[in-house]
Amino acid sequence: MRKMLFCLLLTLLCMAAALAEGDPVEAAVRQAGLSQPVQIQQSGDIAACFAEAEGVRHLVVLERRDGVWQVVIDNPTALIPAEALPALWLDNGDAIYWTYTFSNASVHFHSARGADGSWGPVDARVLLSGYGDYTHEYATWWDEAHGGEIIHSYAESDENDNLLPYGSTLEYFPATWLSGCICLADFDLSRFPCFDFDGGEWWFALNTYLREAAAALMPDCACLDGLVKNGALHFLVQKPDGSKRYVICEYASHRAARLIESTPLPEDTYLGVENFTDSLWIHGRSVTVQLFSNNTAGLEYIYDDAPASDNFLFFGYRTVWNDNMSQTILYGDHPWDDITEIDWDALPRSLDEAAARMDSSRYAVVVNPDPKDRLHLRERADKGSLSQGKYYSGTPVLNLNDTESRDWDRVMIGLITEGGQRGWMMKKFLTDGRSGDALWLDTRPMPNLFSKGEALKVYTEPQIGPYTLHWNAFGYTMKVIGVIGEEWYHVWFPATGEYGFVLQSDLWEGNG
Q1: Residues 100, 80: contact at Cβ < 8 Å?
Q2: Which of 99, 50, 46 is nearest to 76 (CA)?
Q3: How far apart are CA 93 and CA 112, in angstroms?
Q4: Under 8 Å between Cβ of 46 and 113
Q5: Tens of pLDDT along 121-162?
């Protein structure tokens, strides 16, 4: 009996030795204390596979040194715990990919091997399907610039894989605290913020990133909730004194974190309610905050279903309106475009209530007797002076009030540093604002024009030069306030306070 057992044991040992000799990579994986190696990939002296240890699946990389395979990376945090194993691919021994496939998306993770033999940071690409012939790609990667930051991009391609110029964005976010979990050996997927993708309940990395960001940026505060919106980080936090604050971290403009902190919020405020996921719930109303183009923060809109309210009130830089058509816009300085000064217990419920708390004394509005007419902006206070543009009724202007003239006002339209102009307008076609009230802008005389493409080039001057891209620019979000010569329109975006110039040939009347 003993001889039989000895022979059986000897046979098993020989089989194990043969197996090890036949697959030295698998043998090296098992020798490292890992089991069930699958999807073994080999390219020259580099190999990779998935394996398990104590029920946890690992991403494993091996190198052959002096003819012997050795595990050099054993990472238990690179994979999604609750999902089926991804597809593994080792490309020429200097790049590794693992890809998850879902019903409407595929998620590709990648790391490259440097010239010194070390494996670098992991990046991610999310490809969305279900959008006809177009491909939507989100990419996220870490860069050591500025102490470490996350870069997030969006790109759109047509059916021939041609990148659409208007379908690309690039955003930057602070991430110095992620430096120790980005390279392949230590990559932690649970902390890596792949934005703009919801693959299911497992996708918790964004919330983890927001909590870690709050801890790094505001170590004295408790993070109650957070979100990413329009290239900035938004947080609801609790201060050491117990007060709640809304904080926006603006980073992209200077590649340094700049915090905009609100006044104290009501005690029962929380973030996210039903469909209004980016709204604060304050006294039974959804209150949404936005970052303006000049990097100040104010209200975006209030939704209130109380009978005495206007339901929706929309806010912009110096503007308030109450319908998506935005044909009537209140204009003037108001207390809701700066969260550092807002009284959250006294938010308006109607246009009339908002108007009564605005100050339009610095401004005037163009009012032409015939709505089809347009008012000249002259270089000098003289009808014979060169016209710098002709402006529609409803156009707001800043009254500079720096000269005395019986018939003329010196005004500024927009921001003189970007998308604006100074000049003279005849007083009799201007209606001045006043303190304790808003200018009521009737924008119906302005042409309701649409961008011919998804993105519109908005120039800083009425000439070809620097420009920004505006997506889905049309009559509800963009107002054509003036005509400059035969080629240009002067446009205004009430929600953000931006002004600029667009080629007339880039706009059209729409198809009805």
Answers
A1: yes
A2: 50
A3: 9
A4: yes
A5: 999 998 887 556 677 888 999 999 999 999 999 888 777 777
Identify the DSSP state of 437: B
| Residue extents of the structural domains in the chain | 22-76, 81-217, 218-355, 363-442, 450-508
Q: Do domains 363-442 and 450-508 have the same CATH topology?
A: yes
Strand partners, 74: 60
CATH number corresponding to 363-442: 2.30.30.40
Rounded to the nearest 10°, the torsion over CA 246, 140, 220, 344 is 0
Amino acid at 503: L
| DSSP string covering 219-232 | TTSEEEEEEEETTE
- Cβ neighbours of residue 95 closer than 8 Å, sequence gap 6 or more: 110, 111, 112, 113
Cβ–Cβ under 8 Å, residues 364 and 409: yes
Read off the pLDDT of residues 272-318 as tens digits, 9 standing for 90 and up. Answer: 988 899 999 999 999 999 998 778 899 999 999 888 777 899 999 89
Residue 168 has pLDDT above 80, yes or no: no
Buried b (16+ CB within 10 A) or exposed e, 420-433: bbbbbbeeebbbeb
| DSSP state string for 467-487 | EEEEET--TTT-EEEEEETTT
CB 49 within 8 A of CB 41: yes
pTM equals 0.85
CA distance readout (Å), 382 to 366, 377, 385, 413, 483:
18, 10, 5, 18, 19
In one-letter notation, the amino acid at residue 266 is P
Q: Are 93 and 43 in contact (CB under 8 A)?
A: yes
Closest CA to 190 of 175, 206, 179: 206
CB 391 within 8 A of CB 413: yes
User: Structure tokens of 182?
Assistant: 């980005």
Give the pair of three-digit tokens for residue 454: 């998804």
Structure tokens at 122: 């992991």
CATH, range 450-508:
2.30.30
